[in-house]
Amino acid sequence: MEHKLKDIIGIFNRTFEQEYNTKLVKGGEEPLYVPANDRVPYHAIYFARGFYSSALHEIAHWLVAGKERRKLEEFGYWYEPDGRSAQRQREFEKVEVKPQAIEWILATAAGFRYFASSDNLDGNPGDTQPFKQAVYEQVKIYAEKGLPKRAEKLRQALADFYGTPNYIDLKQFDVTRI
């Protein structure tokens, strides 16, 4: 299955632009979320380097962010660049569990391969297995209790577009393959 950027951009924008004044935009080297301002009248999710996986990841962060956080650049979160210590890496992973669980669910709905991201290329991420297991456990919670409203809406749109099952099938999630 081919995954074109124009498809994910179109699916996202059709699903959310009208109601949330938010657009998915192909960005440059680094991803960025910028709320509407006096130069750009819409909220923009810029994903990095034209990567489909980056689009899914940045969308997942937007889907986790609440209404007040969506008013802030980068949702008001800190970001510590590559080269994090093991302790800082564990702290980073704690805030990544929900977005990456949603990203994995969206990727699966799109028939796209998901890889857990430690996002610490210049540092030693340490043992990533506990993080991957935590992401999987969160997927199981979402499968049982349901996704947040916006995430579910996008999951359904992706499943419809790509012709994948329109439900979260836990048999499609294997923590040893991420």
Can you walk through the features of this model?
The protein is mainly alpha-helical. The chain has two domains: 5-76, no CATH class; 86-177, no CATH class. It contains five helices and three strands, in the order αβββαααα. It has helices spanning 5-20, 52-64, 86-109, 129-145, 149-162, and strands at 22-26, 32-34, 43-47. It has a three-stranded mixed β-sheet with strand order 1-3-2. Helix 2 packs across helix 3, helix 3 crosses helix 4 (129-145) and helix 3 packs across helix 5. The longest helix has 24 residues, at 86-109. It is globular and about 45 Å long. The mean pLDDT is 93.
| Percent range for β-strand residues | 5-15%
Q: Which secondary-structure class do the elements indicate? A: mainly alpha
Order of helices and strands: HEEEHHHH
Tell the overall outline: globular
How many distinct folded domains?
Answer: 2
Main beta sheet: 3 strands, mixed
Mean pLDDT: 93
Radius of gyration: 16 Å
- Main sheet: strand order: 1-3-2
Number of strands: 3
Q: What is the terminal separation in angstroms?
A: 19 Å
Annotation field: number of helices = 5
User: What is the percent of helical residues?
Assistant: 40-55%
Stretches where pLDDT is under 50 for at least 5 consecutive residues are none
List the helices and strands and how they pair.
Layout: H1 5-20, E1 22-26, E2 32-34, E3 43-47, H2 52-64, H3 86-109, H4 129-145, H5 149-162
Parallel strand pairs: 1-3
Antiparallel strand pairs: 2-3
